[in-house]
Amino acid sequence: MKTRMNWQVVPATLAILVAMTGGALSETIQIARAGQSVNVSGTSGGTVKAKGCAGYIAGNPNHVIKLAEASDLRFSLQGAGEPTLLINGPGGRTVCVMAEPGGKIEIPGLGEAGNYSVYVGDRVQGRHPYSI
To answer: What letters, b where the CB count within 10 A reaches 16 and e where it falls short, cover 35-74?
Structure first.
């Protein structure tokens, strides 16, 4: 017996899976050398209440930074709305910062080699553009 696949179901299934995960999959960024500058952008917010941090985030990190060697890792975010920045780093280190008036966040001094999960949230569950 031959089975036929109904291809009309595939787009609907993908849309449901993306909605269940809280948005797109994380963007992974490899930083191989000290002093390397990277600019990324996206949309803040989500439906998950951030634990230990004000605001709402997506179910997956917006970005994953892979730092190959210890170096001075700095984050600077500019965004609309009321952005928050939650970073889960190596060794269980967590940093949470809320935006200054004008939607700007600065975090200097992270730098242990390893992976950093970066969540860009919003205090009032808004969804707004940002750049880091």
So the answer is: eeeeeeebbbbbebebeebbbbbbebbbbbbebeeebebe
Average pLDDT over residues 36-41: 85
Q: Closest Cα to residue 77, out of 48, 106, 110? A: 106
Copy the structure tokens of residue 76.
Answer: 């600077």
User: Pairing between strand 27-31 and 63-67?
Assistant: parallel
Q: Which residues in 33-93 belong to E strands, given as ranges? A: 41-43, 48-49, 56-57, 63-67, 73-79, 83-88
| pLDDT tens digit sequence for 49-84 | 998 888 999 999 999 999 988 888 888 999 999 999
**Which parts of the chain fold into alpha helices (H)?**
9-21
pTM of the model: 0.77
Closest CA to 113 of 30, 49, 38: 30
Q: In what order do the strands lie in the sheet with 73-79?
A: 41-43, 129-131, 73-79, 104-110
CA 130, CA 78: separation in Å to the nearest integer? Answer: 6
